[in-house]
Amino acid sequence: MRKKLSSICDKHIFGKRKHMKDLFSLPESSFPAHFIWGSATAGHQIEGDNIHSQWWAWEQAGRFAERSGKACNSYALYKEDISLLQELGHQAYRFSIEWSRIEPAENQFDTEALAHYVDLARRVKEAGMKTFVTLHHFSHPQWFEEQGAFHTLDNLPFFERYVRYVVPALAPYTDFWIIINEFNLGNAPERLLEKANFIRYHARGYHLVKEYSTAPVSSAHAFPYYMPSRPTSDFDVTLTRYRDWIDHEFFFHAIRTGEIVMPFQDVVFDADVKGTCDYWAINYYTRHMIDARRASGEGTRYRHTQLKLIPMDFYLEEFFPEGIILNLERLIDKPVYITENGVASNDDAWRLVYLALHMTALKEAIDRGVDVRGYLYWSFLDNYEWGSFLPRFGLVDVDFTTFTRSPRPSAYFYRDVIEHNGFTPEMLRHYLPWLAEL
C-alpha cells in the first residue's frame, strides 16, 4: 500500500510542471519606461562607530541584545559599496546622513563628516545612480535626545540648524529628499503627541530644503496593512480602523489638508504642513493583525501562513504582497516610490520568491492606476537590525568579522530585473533551477 501511494505521489505531485500551480506561473511583469530600481540602507545600521548617537548610548546601556559596533564598516568602505552597487546595475541608492556625526556636540559641527557625505553622494551620482538622501533615519545626537528630541516643538530650532547646515552642501548631488524615516507608528499616548510634532518637523524640513534644492521632497511612511484578527468582530474592525487612523491616515490627511487630527488632542491646522510631500515615499513589508481582546491590540497571524526564515521571532514570518496593492490604491494623488521593501531570510531562495511576489503585486498596483515610479529594495547589505545582526535582509551577504561583501543570487536576479525593467518566469527558472526540475 505504501509503495502504491508513493507511486501515486510521484505521478500526480511531481509529474509534469504544466499541471502544477507554482512560482513560474506568475505573469511576466514589465514596468513603465524610466522606472527607477535600486536599494536602500541607513547610516547607523551599516556605517559603524556612530558613537555620538542616542542609539549608540542605548546599546552601551544594555538596552539591546547586540551592539552595532563596526556594523558593516561602511563609513570606511563606502567607496567599495558604491562600486558594488554599480556592478549590480542599481539605478538608485537611498542612504541616510547621521546627524550625530555632523553635529556630535550641540552647535559643534564636524566639517570632515559633512565632506564624507558630500563625497558619498557625489560618487553615487558619478556612478550613474539617483540619490535618495534621508536626513533622519531613527538615530540622532545624544545631546538632542537629552533635550527631549522630538517630544517637544521647542527643539525645532536644533533640527532647523542641522538641515540648513547639510542641505546646501548635498543639494547638487541629491535627486530625492526624505526628511524623516517612519515616524508614523506607535499607539502610546506620549507617542501620539510626538507624531503630531513630527509632522511639524517634517514640514519645516520640507520648506528649508526647498530654499536650496528643486529636487522632490517627502518623508518615508511605514505602511503595514492592518487587518482585523476576526473580520466579523465589530471590536476588531473598530480597533483596526483606529490603528489605521493614528498610524496612517493622520499623516496622509495632514499632508493633503494641513489639518493634524490625532485622538485626545485638539485639532491643529497648520498651513505650512499642507502639500509638504512631492511624492509618497512608502516602506512596505507585510500586514499586521489587530486584536481588540489583547491589551496591546496586536494580533497573531494565522499559523498556517508563517514561515520561520531566521532563528528568532520576527515580523516577517509571513508574505502578504496583496497589502501593497490595497495600500497603494489609497495614494493615487501623487507619484509613489517604494523606498523600502524586503525580507530577512537565511535562505536566499525565499528572497527571490519575496521579490517576485511583491514586484508582481507592484505591477498590478500600477495597472490599477497608481503612479509608482521606483522601487528600492531593503536592504542592499546585511546590516545591524536595530538590536540584532540575526535578520539578514541583504542582497549582499556581509561577514561582520572581515566585512567581506558577497552578492547573493538574489542580487544577480535583481540585476537582471533592472536590466530588463521587469521579470519573466524564465529569469526565475535560471535562479531557482532546483525548483524548475520538480
UniProtKB/TrEMBL annotation:
SUPFAM superfamilies: (Trans)glycosidases (SSF51445). GO terms for biological process: carbohydrate metabolic process. It comes from the Bacteria. The keyword Transferase does not apply. Keywords: Glycosidase, Hydrolase. GO terms for molecular function: beta-glucosidase activity. InterPro entries: GH (IPR017853), Glyco_hydro_1 (IPR001360). Gene3D superfamilies: Glycosidases (3.20.20.80). PANTHER family: GALACTOLIPID GALACTOSYLTRANSFERASE SFR2, CHLOROPLASTIC (PTHR10353:SF209), GLYCOSYL HYDROLASE (PTHR10353). Belongs to the glycosyl hydrolase 1 family. This is Beta-glucosidase. It comes from Dictyobacter kobayashii.
